[in-house]
Design a protein that fits this description.
This protein has a single domain, classed as TIM Barrel. The protein has ten helices and eight strands. It has helices spanning 3-7, 21-34, 46-53, 73-85, 97-101, 105-121, 137-149, 168-177, 193-202, 212-219; strands spanning 10-14, 38-41, 59-64, 90-94, 125-129, 154-156, 183-187, 206-209. Strands 1-2-3-4-5-6-7-8 form an eight-stranded parallel barrel, surrounded by six helices. Helix 4 (73-85) packs parallel to helix 6.
Length: 231
């Protein structure tokens, strides 16, 4: 894999609680130069990113119902519409995983289906964050099934704010159990090139990372210290 091919796996992320506009602008400049798949930022930063990245192939991604997933359907839908209005291309929507854990799979599936329908009407790519660290294996399979029934483009492992992030085993589980074209995004705790390549080898088609530049440097043979961010 070339470093440019590797770059297309990366959703370069800044969801720090104290992220500044200047840091967001720097991330966009980095993404445009490296050719990342997207930058992933909070909704209020979408306009900034869109203005910088509009002429480039790099998409602008934002998070919906983040990080808890317990916003109302109406609130999540409104966030999606506003994100589109401000120039987003992709939305990472936090599933109501508390409802799934409580046995309300039908409710969860219905919400995903309606939200992906809204996003699709706005030409937005959808990724559903299921927060695997709080799900047992049966619930992970239910989450995958809900995402497939809801016609999501991706299932995404984690917010980076939970008790744990992506694992190779979870990526393999989603890869092996999926029944259709849904793709997989690994996120949370991907700090080294070894981590990143293991996720790709297991079946991830996107990686949510907050240290994209370090991973790219390692991909090009430079020695770098592991990132310390949970995302």
């Amino acid at each position: 894999m070339t470093h440019s091919e590797f770059a297309r796996y990366l959703d370069a992320t800044n969801l720090k609680l104290d992220a500044s506009d200047s840091e967001i602008c720097s991330l966009c400049d980095e993404a445009a130069e490296a050719g990342y798949a997207s930058v992933c930022v909070y909704p209020t930063s979408v306009s900034i990113c869109s203005s910088i990245l509009y002429p480039t192939p790099v998409n602008v991604c934002t998070v919906i119902g983040f990080p808890h997933g317990r916003s109302s359907f109406e609130a999540k839908r409104e966030e999606i519409v506003r994100a589109s209005d401000h120039g987003a291309n992709e939305v990472d929507i936090v599933m109501n995983y508390a409802a799934l854990r409580a046995g309300e799979k039908s409710l969860v599936t219905e919400e995903i289906a309606k939200l992906t329908e809204t996003a699709r009407s706005l030409k937005l790519l959808t990724k559903i964050i299921v927060e695997t660290c709080y799900l047992n294996e049966a619930q992970k399979e239910q989450a995958l099934n809900a995402c497939e029934l809801g016609a999501a483009d991706f299932i995404k492992t984690s917010t980076g704010f939970g008790a744990g992030g992506a694992t190779v085993d979870d990526i393999r589980l989603f890869r092996d159990k999926r029944t259709g074209p849904i793709k997989i995004k690994a996120s949370g705790g991907i700090r080294t090139l070894e981590d990143a390549l293991a996720m790709i080898d297991a079946g991830a088609e996107r990686l949510g990372v907050s240290a994209a530049s370090s991973l790219m440097a390692a991909m090009q043979g430079m020695e770098v210290a592991p990132a310390d961010s949970s995302y």
